[in-house]
Amino acid sequence: xxxxxxxxxxxxxxxxEGLVALCPGQALLAEADVVVRAVRAAPGARPVAVLxxxxxxxxxxxxxxxxxxxxxxxxxxxxxTSPSTDAVLAALRAVAGPAGALLVVKNYTGDRLNFGxxxxxxxxxxxxxxxxxxxxxVALSETVPPERRRxxxxxxxxxxxxxxAAARGLPLAEVAxxxxxxxxxxxxxxxxxxxxxxxxxxxxxxxxxEGAVELGLGIHGEQGVSRETLRPADALVETMLERxxxxxxxxxxxxxxxxxxxxxxxxxxxxxxxxxAALAGLxxxxxxxxxxxxxxxxxAIEMPGCSLSVMAVDDARLALLDAPANAPAWxxxxxxxxxxxxPAPPPAASAPPAAPGPLAxxxxxxxxxxxxxxxxxxxxxxxxxxxxxxxxxxxxMARGAAALRALPDGAHANPADALAGAGQALRRAIAGSSGxxxxxxxxxxxxxxxxxxxxxxxxxxxxxxxxxxAVGELGGAxxxxxTMLDALLPAAEAFExxxxxxxxxxxxxxxxxxxxxxxxxxxxxxxxxxxxxxGARAVGTPDxxxAAAMVWMRALARRD
Length: 560
What we know:
Elements: H1 11-21, E1 26-28, E2 34-37, E3 49-56, E4 73-79, H2 85-95, E5 101-106, H3 109-124, E6 129-134, H4 155-167, H5 172-184, E7 186-192, E8 212-215, E9 226-229, H6 233-248, E10 255-262, H7 268-284, E11 288-295, E12 305-312, H8 315-322, H9 360-376, H10 378-388, H11 393-405, H12 415-429, H13 434-448, H14 457-475, H15 485-497, H16 503-520, H17 544-557
Parallel strand pairs: 3-4, 3-5, 5-6, 10-11
Antiparallel strand pairs: 1-2, 2-4, 7-8, 7-12, 8-9, 10-12
Helix pairs in contact: 2-3, 4-5, 6-7, 9-11, 9-17, 10-11, 10-17, 11-12, 12-13, 13-14, 14-15, 15-16, 15-17, 16-17
């Protein structure tokens, strides 16, 4: 087990101490794992207090929602374990006044028992207390009756409704009624791509084979209702929406709020894709999405996966969702609008193609050789780049090759136009650093060869040197940094020195010097780029960028 913890028995307390240390609006009770608001009114002046909680492992829930307009206290148990009755009672004593307290409880046996008993003890002490049980997991609709369903991520929206109702000064019965109505209007469903590891257990809760997902799971690292084949995100979202909307009986014209919740191990990239599909799916069915939130709201430690929650809303419930709130995990009011996709500005008008010059056929042939060589080298460049980089150089060069093949016929008319066209094509086709480097070099060389339909060897050498210098200026690299320049700089110097011997011999000298530079990169520790993060671990393999440069240089030396 690899986790950033000290002692599994101290995980919860140390976590809460860290969370409270980062939030000046919160405080931690000395004798219980309870987070409360740091600033509270005198007991007699307090409105209804709203409390929630459960086992740890759901962060940022529940402590992350302690703040004005949301929770007054959050009670935390051991990982995936209900807090004790005494801890809940301590929270009630700390935050409740004569107006009483509402406890928002997810529908798990341990939570219901301990929160319920604490509420009974509080009443015996003269503290009015009501309980609202959240059972929003529609995945269990065919397995258990509605009152026995699990409470999952939609609970966060119930926190918000209850907290806003209490902040208005409503009496306990009305705060509870608003929370219960919100719960009845709520449905959620989740999907997991893997298990999580409880620190005390030290191993994943289950094993999920490649290409499978767990559909309809809770929030405690358990397996789902069914194990199914992994499908694209859009298809999984469609399945979850169908189940949720059918359970709630929502159709065209219904107004809803949407919560896209990460289970802890899903990156924002994937959650955004899920949110995109969920919004589109709701709108395609004619529902009106009034509010939407996306992120990690109630997790299962580091489980990869997500859940969707849909809550039916009207003007009154929207007002509660929109009411001011300030807590570390509450991300905002959720207001959204229709997607806005603007057209890209049109490119500048290009000059009409020039008449083909004497070198047009040779230029076209050379570009074809370069493209073929880059395509043939894709696998080897990928392997090299994977050793010290991110492994994308091969496919980047293949995309560049495709862009070169797609150049229009007029692009080969003369050297300047060919270099400029190739630079623009590579800029658009190649992501990462290679695209800008090759683009700036080719564009700089193009300017030096303008008006020269048949450059002499010295002019080609000067243009090549200008291109190499442009790459160095843009990236800040120097000789010895283990980059493409370690092949290109010696090649440029040899090209200039040998220009008087004619173009073919000069390029042969450039090629020989470049090859030697490429070999030298094997023993260089990288000082720039991703490879620099590996330091001496990258020594022993040649630089992938320098290798790619030699691929096209060799291709230029050949003849059809």
